[in-house]
Specification:
There is one protein chain. The chain has about 220 residues and is of the alpha+beta class. It has three domains: about 100 residues, Ribosomal Protein L25, Chain P (Beta Barrel); about 80 residues, Ribosomal protein L25, C-terminal domain (RNA Polymerase Alpha Subunit, Chain A, domain 2), CATH 2.170.120.20; about 35 residues. Helix content is about 25%, strand content about 40%. The strands form three sheets. It has a six-stranded mixed beta barrel. A four-stranded mixed sheet has the order 10-7-9-12, with no helix packed on it. A hairpin with a 2-residue loop joins strand 4 and strand 5. The longest helix is centred in the C-terminal third of the chain and has 35 residues. It is elongated, with a radius of gyration of 30 Å.
Length: about 220
Amino acid sequence: MQLTAEIRTEHGKRPVRRLRNQGMIPGVIYGPEMEPVSIKLKKQEVEKFIHALSEAKPVTLRINVDGKTQDIEVFVKKVQIDKVTDEIVHIDFYKPAMGHVMRIEIPIRVVGKPIGVEKGGIMEVLHTELPVETLPGALVEHIEIDVSHLNLGESYHVRDLKLPEGMKVLLPADEALVTIIVPKGLQVEEVTAAAPAETIEPEVIKKGKKAEETEEEKE
């Protein structure tokens, strides 16, 4: 994905408000081996790609600096949205550096139909993103987890993940990511089905005793 950006010299509330009225979105680029750089992007271009933006997906910013075009690979760190207008008001971009650990959230992609769901259970996804620490070279756009083996009442935990080398999850190992809930109705059916079996045996025993007593009386 590529976005065009320009160096921004406007700072402060009024200049930034004027910038937004001109159809531009203010932003900033920062990273471990650079000074923060203020930029501005075309609102129309950003809105076109906003649904595809992800903290784990690299973005190429094409910036014109002193008459020279420069491409910088960055990651979207934060998107600020106006609570009233629901419009983008600011974007933070992070420029990684080799050898420096990044803290980001990677989308989780759940695949497979759990055995428990086929038996009437309900799948509940507890985490849609995974907070991790990783080196730039180990970064992936999403983490895929196969839940097809999960039965009723079972869960997929952090410890079950298969991660790229150099990636560390910032959650406890026993944290559940996906779980298969057993509906109450399903539990009731199981108990109801088992109940008659418990009452049949005593009745048979009573009949047996009566039969024995009858035989004794005849003798």
